[in-house]
Amino acid sequence: MAGLKADDAFPEGVSFLYIPPTGDLDLKVCGMPIKYDASKGMSCHPPSLSQTKTGTLCVREIRLANRIPLEFQSKKVVLVAVPGAFTPTCQEQHVTSYLANLEQFKAKGVDNIIFIAMNDPFVMSAWGKANGVKDESILFMTDTDAGFSKSIGWESGGRTMRYAIIIDHGKVTYADVDTERGSIAKSGAKGVLVKL
Asked: In which family does this protein belong, per the annotation (predicted)?
């Protein structure tokens, strides 16, 4: 497959891994990675989102999780791929452009902004915390082995390329990739906002 384009249905069977944000920005507070089914279905939070710290260890209460819908079929989502968490362009330009414009995205009806990279869920969670993200308005997820990015042809050297996809209730309304090194013209917040 050579990328996605407007009017395509978002592909079936796409899932990512992530650690749900808890509101705690302490990098030593860990969580459990869970599957986020981007295409359809339901997902469960881990047994508890309540955590306490004991040094660098986490202790979780055990209680039943509520099933929550996590499907792109029922949301307007901006999916943003970057080559790597904490890398210079990704940190200094890409993620900060979305943080600075978050209210504009919400005003245009965006339910979630999701950053994906091939980094593991713990690194992606730490990246969100390092940027002060405490809730699910911006999620940081793992594209395991850049599998989704490979499937749409937007992977290079084992890493996700820099791209953005707008999905409105399961339908792709915008998809483009930045091919120029360090450019966020097509996948940065300003370039995506004008497509909403």
From this structure: Belongs to the peroxiredoxin family. Prx5 subfamily.
